[in-house]
Each structure stands twice: as structure tokens, then as C-alpha cells.
């Protein structure tokens, strides 16, 4: 589903910050992405999100070489990829319900079509009672559950997460990872979750993609 072959990335004329990345991610798998600060985790996620193109090598997603895709085709493919950020990135002027519904509105669905899906998903992530609250009134854990719901409401095939537990209490971190694990188990969503929290890596036995100074090793 995702294949990298000899991929390298540099920003502008700077040094190559990802080097010789060659790996394959099978559909329905869950991987942690880890490594020291500055190792290139966010940059790798941006390649996977198709918001950056590699400066060398080949990235294949869903069977297509992304270098061959038109801008339109890239946008279409991008719809199959969801992302969750450390800092939530919810829109403050929209309620929790409206934030989660937004991707479906952007896809042109009418409220009558999506209302039940959004409500069910919010209940599933434990925000059934907080649907009408604005993000400023949510706790960190609640904000992240809303952000996860927004990322998955359009049922992406791949879900990326960049330090999703970085802004919540440590005891809530593993509850959030359980949520990702459920999405993986019940919907078969392919998940790549970047974290440097050792307790999480130890508590869950998922394979680890370890980046060190731009080079990647996968520990199954
Ligand atoms: N837009 C950019 N322009 C130039 N250099 C960049 C840019 N973004 C990241 N870098 C550099 O690329 C390297 C990798 O950064 P990246 O953010 O991918 O690492 P990271 O592993 O996610 O780090 P952290 O855990 O601290 O978030 C760093 O040296 C960083 O300074």
C-alpha cells in the first residue's frame, strides 16, 4: 500500500535530512514512528501525507507512483489519508460536532446525510455529551479525541498521527493510543503514529519505525 524506495529529502539547498528510506507498509498494519528530536519524523509524515515530494527516490501510495500524479489526482489520493497533530488544530469558532463534520461538508455532503455518522462517531470516542461545546471548553484529552474523530470521519485508509499524545497527561496517553488501536482493529485502518514516549512504546507491541539522523530501521 505504501512503498518507499531509496527516498531522500532535503529542504532547499540544505543537507539531506532523510536518506535512503526503503520500506513497505502493508494495509491494516499499525506502526509506531520514533526517534530523537530532529531525526525527521515530521518530515517523513509530511511525505506520507503527500504534502512534500521526495527530492530523490520513489514513493508509491495505493499502487501509484506519486511523482506521476497530477495536482488533482494528488488531492483525490490525499482524501484517503487522515492526520492528527499534537496541537489538535481544531477550529475555535466551530462546535465539537461542527469540527468533526467539517471534512464531510467539504466533500459536499448535506447535514441530513452525515448527522448520524458524526453523532455516532462522537459517541464512540466518548464525546457524546460534549458535541455542542466549543474546543476552548474541552480538556486536552477531549480535544484530541475530537481531532481523531475529525481525522477519521471520512474513513481514510491511512491515519497518520504526529505526537498525538504530546499535549495530554501521561495517563491519558495510553487511552488515546487504545483509540487508535481500536480504529486499526475494527476498521482495518493503516496507522502510523509518531511518538517519543517510551512508556507507550513499551506498553503496545506494535512494530517500530526508528529514525536516527534521517536513516530508518524497522523493528518488527
Ligand atoms: N521547513 C523546513 N525547512 C528547513 N529545514 C527543516 C524544515 N522542517 C524541518 N527541517 C529540519 O529537518 C530536520 C528534521 O526535522 P523534523 O521536524 O522532521 O524532525 P522530528 O523528528 O519531527 O523532530 P521533533 O521530534 O523535534 O519534532 C531538522 O534538522 C529540522 O531543522
Strand % is: 25-35%
Q: Tell me the Rg in angstroms.
A: 17 Å
Percent of residues in helices = 25-40%
Write the element-wise H/E pattern from the N-terminal end onward. Answer: EEEHEEHEHHHEHEHEE
Low-confidence regions:
none
Report the sheet with the most strands, covering strand number, pairing sense and barrel closure. 6 strands, mixed
Numbering strands along the chain, what is their spatial order in the largest sheet?
A: 6-7-8-3-9-10
- Number of contiguous helices: 7
Subunit structure: Homodimer. Forms a membrane-associated complex with FtsX.
Organism: Devosia geojensis
Domain ABC transporter: 2-218
Pfam family, one: ABC_tran
Structure description:
Belongs to the ABC transporter superfamily. Its main location: membrane. The model has no long low-confidence stretch (mean pLDDT 95). The relative contact order is 0.20. The chain has seven helices and ten strands. The strands form two sheets. Strands 6-7-8-3-9-10 form a six-stranded mixed sheet, sandwiched between helices. A four-stranded antiparallel sheet has the order 2-1-4-5, covered by helices on one side. The protein has a domain at 91-155. By secondary structure, the chain is an alpha/beta fold. The structure holds adenosine-5'-triphosphate. The site of adenosine-5'-triphosphate (ATP) has 11 residues, from helix 1.
List the helices and strands and how they pair.
Blueprint: E1 2-10, E2 16-25, E3 30-34, H1 41-48, E4 56-61, E5 64-65, H2 71-78, E6 81-85, H3 96-106, H4 111-124, H5 140-152, E7 158-162, H6 170-187, E8 190-194, H7 198-203, E9 208-212, E10 215-219
Parallel strand pairs: 3-8, 3-9, 6-7, 7-8
Antiparallel strand pairs: 1-2, 1-4, 4-5, 9-10
Helix pairs in contact: 3-4, 3-5, 5-6
This protein binds adenosine-5'-triphosphate (ATP).
Adenosine-5'-triphosphate binds next to helix 1.
Amino acid at each position: 500500500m505504501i512503498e518507499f524506495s531509496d527516498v531522500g529529502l532535503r529542504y532547499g539547498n540544505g543537507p539531506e535530512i532523510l536518506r535512503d528510506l526503503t520500506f513497505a507498509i502493508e494495509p491494516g498494519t499499525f506502526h509506531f514512528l520514533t526517534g530523537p528530536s530532529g531525526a525527521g519524523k515530521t518530515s517523513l509524515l509530511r511525505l506520507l501525507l503527500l504534502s512534500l515530494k521526495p527530492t530523490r527516490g520513489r514513493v508509491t501510495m495505493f499502487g501509484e507512483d506519486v511523482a506521476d500524479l497530477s495536482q488533482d489526482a494528488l488531492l483525490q489520493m490525499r482524501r484517503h489519508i487522515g492526520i492528527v497533530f499534537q496541537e489538535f488544530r481544531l477550529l475555535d469558532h466551530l462546535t465539537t460536532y461542527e469540527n468533526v463534520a467539517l471534512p464531510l461538508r467539504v466533500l459536499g455532503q448535506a447535514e441530513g446525510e452525515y448527522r448520524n455518522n458524526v453523532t455516532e462517531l462522537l459517541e464512540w470516542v466518548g464525546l457524546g455529551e460534549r458535541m455542542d461545546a466549543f474546543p476552548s471548553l474541552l480538556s486536552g484529552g477531549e480535544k484530541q479525541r475530537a481531532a481523531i474523530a475529525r481525522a477519521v470521519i471520512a474513513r481514510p485508509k491511512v491515519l497518520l498521527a504526529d505526537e498525538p499524545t504530546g499535549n495530554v497527561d501521561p495517563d491519558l496517553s495510553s487511552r488515546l493510543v487504545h483509540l487508535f488501536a481500536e480504529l486499526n482493529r475494527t476498521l482495518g485502518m493503516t496507522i502510523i503514529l509518531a511518538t517519543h514516549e517510551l512508556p507507550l512504546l513499551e506498553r503496545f507491541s506494535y512494530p517500530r519505525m526508528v529514525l536516527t539522523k534521517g536513516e530508518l530501521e524497522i523493528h518488527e
